[in-house]
User: What shape does this take?
Amino acid sequence: MTDIPILSLTIFLPLLGAIVILLIKDDENSINNIKKVALLTSVGVFLLSLFIWLQFDNSNPGYQFQEKFRWFNDFNFYYHIGIDGISLFMVILSTFLTPLCILASWESIKKRVKEYMIAFLFLETVMIGMFSSVDILLFYIFFEAVLIPMYLIIGIWGGDRRIYASFKFFLYTLLGSVLMLIAIIAIYRLTNSMSIEDLQGNYFAKNVQMYLWLAFFASFAVKIPMWPFHTWLPDAHVEAPTAGSVILAGVLLKMGGYGFIRFSLGMLPEASEYFSPLVMTLSIVAVVYTSLVALAQTDIKKLIAYSSVAHMGLVTIGIFIVNAQGLEGAMIQMISHGVVSGALFLCVGVIYDRMHTRDINFYGGLVNRMPIYATVFMIFMLGSVGLPGTSGFIGEFLVIVGAFKYSSIVVIGSATGIVLSAVYMLYLYKRIIFGEMSNEKLSEILDLNNREKITLIPLAIAVIFIGIFPNIFIEPMRLPLESIILNYEFANAK
Assistant: This one.
């Protein structure tokens, strides 16, 4: 099996599916065929990613399934892909959520279905490509390419203010990315190399690291997003279609966290150590402030969007603590948040498709009419809160343990955010699910149909599975994270 370019096949199979859809005649009779091709393609990609996981060697800290050939003869630019324990689950998260997004859009997307499915499959290609890139230029191309389908998904299939939200999303992320491009050019001029693998270490003078770190920070801080660069996210979430919100929260926010680990810590350890108090300050503000803002929301999507900023604040705390518990906690938190927040947006989509409103005050007493919905929503809500036995607990616990080794102030800030997240999520659940069904419009609302069950139940299983068997996910990432920590400690001990 080693002769088969399994990773390239995983990256470009969605693109092949998109080309097939492009060739299908665009009429009413073909819409179901378009949906089926998109779904089958995304399921096939997910199965390929599971095969990669099964073949993955946990004892190897380096990149596996590597493919490399020269891209430009005049420059040291390569098509160089591979995955290690850090990128493995980011790839699987992307392939896991995409078919669920296509299923979730099965009935809600009525116009331009063909273009919508092509956009989603292209988005899957560039997400997997970005997490699999071992060449910085290749990473940047995929990183930027994510903007295009996401911009279209929000701008064409979004809500009433979709144009404003899509422009805001595009401009914010593009501005940060321009600075990253300048940093990449500077790295190439200094080292004549674009290999992430070769540049892992302490290759740059400290003053150079400072400038490079700030350039990368501008891009990744907007992407994750950190406070105060987060304002595009609630708008994008509110206006995006349900599946767009799922991918945005589930995968795209993780691009920032992945970038911080791979570039900031991996290549610029001295600058990361210097700027870690800044990151901690911004992260604590994000965790506490956005949690308080979430409490004041009446739009369910907006509440979950602000909760995402708070949860990603815990991720950046875990990353820049730079110890084993912190980094492992940050990685698990990213995986958990990808599943939980994606699932919560799907839950919002279920009731929005029925009632066409996201106003918390509109709902109440849904448990009386939707017991299955109430059950799966409860699992995701408890995962978001971080109840033991759920995925959220593992990530938050490890980050807190790691924070004890760093600073008691960081521990207090993180713990405050976790308590506040419990307050607003329990408040949300109580308002929507429990109580009397006083709104007569809800009297005929129906529980989950089979398609919605197929969409939500795998996510509920994933939340519990990660919570009970965290080592399955921690083991592959342990060695590559340890090598980053050792390099960081060595660089800053000089």
